[in-house]
Design a protein that fits this description.
By secondary structure, the chain is α+β, with helices and mostly antiparallel strands. The strands form 2 sheets. It has an 8-stranded mixed sheet with strand order 2-3-4-1-13-16-15-14, covered by helices on one side. An 8-stranded mixed sheet has the order 6-7-8-5-9-12-11-10, covered by helices on one side.
């Protein structure tokens, strides 16, 4: 007797992977302390190794940190990360408290996660591995944005009709939310709020999509393509109401094709618990699921 499966539950829609979040910062030193020493992630050893940019590997995704003086970019929401050992992460964060005492760095331990503020005030929530995030033990499962009231339905329509994404209305933190699938166990959440919208400062997310041409053409017809980067990439900023083309929310999307040279590039993830005093040969690399 053949078994019955829910095939639609395995569909990602047109967005294959959320590859990175980009936040410009004025100084690399606090970022190294925060992302590498404190959170236990890995600076990419092969690309962007100078002083003007830095890529932090988090499983199969990254956080990009180009240098910009003097004002850092502040994401209007929260980045969700998965770390394999919350207890160890909490201890590492305590170690960097004093060196970062003159910054906006802070952290607080909750039962199932750690809320962290980066040295410039970006909000990050670090989770332990959980079935919510599939089998991932280290990664970037979501980004949350706070958007105007009564906008979630229009945002869902935009992602479905323009990008061919899998999107739906739901609840998050007790509030109405547009939930957009951006990869395997990855989401962008647009959470409605009554709070005043902060001015957009140019931070962005990067996604890979399967159908690269049709969404581009639809955005081009609406005058929404903001950058023609190269053969494998284009960008847009405005999420709009499809009925009148009026902007709802601004967030630059760096949109890449599945033929992009960086698609599926293996990323180095170190074992953050390896040390010179308790060194174990052959355990430099992270051994878990990414």
């Amino acid at each position: 007797m053949s078994r019955s499966y829910n095939r639609s539950s395995e569909s990602l829609g047109n967005i294959l992977h959320m590859e990175h979040v980009n936040l410009m910062i004025p100084d690399q030193a606090p970022a190294i302390l925060f992302y590498v020493t404190g959170l236990g992630f890995t600076r990419d050893p092969f690309l962007m190794t100078g002083l003007d940019n830095m890529w932090i590997n988090v499983g199969r995704s990254q956080i990009h940190l180009p240098r910009r003086d003097p004002s850092p970019q502040i994401l209007r929401g929260r980045i969700g990360l998965v770390s394999p050992n919350l207890k160890a992460t909490f201890q590492s964060l305590k170690m960097i408290k004093e060196p970062l005492s003159k910054t906006k760095f802070s952290f607080s331990r909750k039962k199932e996660f750690i809320d962290v503020s980066c040295p410039w005030g970006n909000q990050i929530r670090v989770h332990a591995p959980d079935e919510t995030f599939g089998n991932v033990e280290i990664g970037l499962p979501y980004v949350e944005f706070f958007v105007p009231k009564n906008s979630a339905g229009k945002i869902v329509n935009f992602y479905r009709e323009i990008l061919g994404a899998k999107a739906s209305i739901g609840k998050r933190h007790g509030k109405t939310c547009a939930m957009v699938t951006t990869g395997t166990s990855q989401y962008v959440y647009f959470i409605e709020t009554n709070e005043k919208q902060a001015k957009y400062d140019g931070h962005h997310i990067a996604i890979y999509i399967a159908d690269f041409a049709v969404p581009y053409q639809k955005l081009l017809e609406r005058g929404l393509v903001s950058r023609e980067s190269d053969q494998h990439e284009w960008r847009f900023i405005d999420i709009v109401d499809l009925d009148n083309n009026k902007p709802i929310f601004k967030i630059e999307h760096e949109v890449r094709s599945a033929t992009h040279p960086l698609f599926g590039r293996p990323l180095v993830n170190r074992n953050p618990h390896q040390s010179n005093r308790s060194y174990k040969r052959g355990q430099d690399n992270f051994q878990g699921q990414i």
